[in-house]
Specification:
Layout (H helix, E strand, L loop, with lengths): L7 H15 L6 H4 L1 E4 L5 E3 H16 L4 E5 L3 E5 L2 H7 L1 E9 L1 H6 L5 E8 L6 E8 L5 E5 L4 E3 L2 E3 L11 E5 L5 H12 L4 E3 L4 H9 L5 E4 L6 H13 L3 E3 L18 E4 L4 H11 L1
Helix pairs in contact: 1-3, 7-8
GO biological process, one term: inositol metabolic process
InterPro entries: Inositol_monophosphatase-like (IPR000760), Inositol_monophosphatase_CS (IPR020550)
GO molecular function, one term: inositol monophosphate 1-phosphatase activity
């Protein structure tokens, strides 16, 4: 079988197209207009659909044959469905990760794009995450390392005895119960943040700006984390399920999972602590 691959520059072009379309809407009432409930389960705003339509139109214009898995539309074949299935080309995108930050003018949101040839997370081979405020660009190709604005990045080397930064995301169902269980673990960290864009936060770990991200939300979607998973792995980091197992799920809009992302020094500590919590 012949596989037709998209290159990393093509993914970058998609990300910059989204930036051009979305940046003028950041922090505006126009961007915040509510439209409908998207496939991911959240209420889609004008800024979300603008970002997604930009991606769809670009793929159609370039006559790309691909399965698009996206936050708002769910799953849609672009171009020739038969050829897309034959080539096993899949694009997993969150057109705007951090929508609530975006419409309120909080400068922490991104477009997340992962490209796979295959049917599972392990088949993702290229990824791009673009900060829609600063235009910082994270990218990775499988086996080639990870880059931030063209420069190689790597996770930090801090261990739990040092001043580690953590992002922590609680489920909205019974948050106090979840918090009570995990407080002993949280006390080991120097600072805790809740930032609002999973894709960007995973990339912060990849670049060494933070050491860990504990996301306890069962509703966390594949599209939020797909690109970040490859970027973090290529930067020498780790991402795994709460029980310590590898995350390798099917590529589907219906796939949701909590996760822990961290540098290599924190992996043994976090896995050991979560055995106690679970």
């Amino acid at each position: 079988m012949i596989y037709i691959e998209l290159n990393i520059d093509f993914l970058k072009r998609i990300a910059y197209k989204v930036y051009e379309a979305v940046n003028p809407l950041l922090g505006t009432d126009e961007g915040a207009k509510k439209l409908k409930i998207g496939a991911g389960g959240d209420i889609s705003m004008n800024i979300d659909t603008t970002a997604e339509n930009t991606i769809i139109h670009f793929l159609e214009e370039k006559k790309i044959n691909i399965l698009l898995i996206s936050e708002e539309i769910g799953e849609k074949y672009i171009g020739d469905k038969r050829k897309a299935i034959q080539n096993q080309n899949v694009l997993i995108v969150d057109p705007l990760d951090g929508s609530n930050n975006a419409v309120r003018g909080i400068p922490y949101c991104s477009v997340s794009i992962a490209y796979a040839i295959g049917k599972r997370i392990a088949d993702i081979i290229k990824a791009v995450v673009l900060n829609l405020n600063t235009k910082d660009l994270y990218l990775a190709e499988k086996g080639k390392g990870a880059l931030l604005n063209g420069k190689k990045i790597h996770v930090s080397s801090l261990d739990i005895s040092e001043k580690c930064f953590l992002e922590f995301n609680l489920p909205m169902k019974d948050p106090l119960e979840s918090l009570e269980k995990i407080i002993p673990l949280l006390r080991n960290f120097f600072r805790i943040r809740i930032l609002g864009s999973s894709a960007l936060s995973i990339c912060q770990i990849a670049s060494g700006s933070m050491e860990a991200f504990i996301n306890l939300r069962e509703s966390n979607r594949l599209v939020d984390a797909a690109a970040g998973i490859l970027i973090l792995n290529e930067a020498g980091g780790k991402i795994f399920s709460l029980d310590g197992s590898i995350i390798d799920r099917p590529l589907s809009i219906d796939v949701k999972f909590p996760f822990i992302a961290c540098n290599t020094k924190l992996e043994p500590f976090l896995k050991k602590e979560f055995v106690k919590i679970l």
